[in-house]
Amino acid sequence: MESSELYHIKQQFTLGAYKSLVDLTLPDPSSPDYTPTLVYKARAHIALGLPSAAEALVPADTENLALKSVAALARYIGADADDAREVVLEELRDLSVEIEGEDAEASAWEKGVVRVLAGTAFARAGEIEEALETLGAGNDTQNLEAVAYAVQIYLSISRPDLARKEFERAKRWAEDDLLLQLIEASIGLVTGKDGYADAHSFYTEQLANPSLTSTHLLTARGVARLLRGEVGAAKSDLEEAVSQLGGKPDAETLAAQTVAAGVGAAKSADADELFSKLSAEFPDHPLVVDYQQKEALFDELAIKFTVPPLATASA
Hints:
By secondary structure, the protein is mainly α. The protein folds into two domains: 1-135; 193-299, Tetratricopeptide repeat domain (Serine Threonine Protein Phosphatase 5, Tetratricopeptide repeat), CATH 1.25.40.10. Helix content is 68%, strand content 0%. The chain is built from 17 helices and no strands. It has helices spanning 4-14, 18-22, 34-47, 51-57, 65-78, 82-98, 108-124, 128-135, 144-156, 160-171, 178-191, 197-207, 215-227, 231-244, 251-261, 268-281, 286-304. Helix 15 packs antiparallel against helix 16. The longest helix has 19 residues, at 286-304. The protein is globular and about 90 Å long. This is Coatomer subunit epsilon. GO terms for molecular function: structural molecule activity.
């Protein structure tokens, strides 16, 4: 059973309070909470776009498979060449094989962390089937975080039906966990269930917690409000998120601001400026990639289109 301190850390990570975890003081190395806390702290650095700092936290000589996997994910995120990324993916594949079998020298917790982090790297590499297999999608893995990541993958490939199946399967064995509620809110945000009311209510409830500061939640509620047509309130949430980020929005907040600015013709110049910033700072963001693909397709079709001659009146 995890301690109250570790439970709180887990909740903070689940709700995207990464800044708090980055600033967290690690417990004594002899404490049973030390390694799990170190993993969450390193993952928070990765989530904030600081993979080098995450890797630096992990002892180079560690034999713990969870720590090995978080260091590998940090290297994958920080790699700037395909060859380097492929080397890390192979390392994560080896770790995924190492945790299989009854004689694997790893705790259930270590195995769960390896599956989640390896699956995350595979998904980012575009290896969707491998990611889902690693996460145990379609099986009763009884690892709620693995379910959450599988749901996100299904939602990202426009398969909310399969995401819903994962959620319903998890409800058979999972307690009314905060992560389970977050999974349901994510599905509701994508499918528009109940007019986005459930997702909006969940984010609002969590933001009311005075001990939690999460720009991720603010952005999520801003998106929910935007989808509900509450543009003014959505922009307010997004502006507050930017303020808490020190005036420099992360990718998800900047993308949401771009969409919000594009609602209504009067603000098209603002939307163009924000999209240019998003393209320059986060060229791999799905919104940027999708736009560029559609732009290229339009140009391709435009070249093939022949304008017919103007009709002239007969004498």
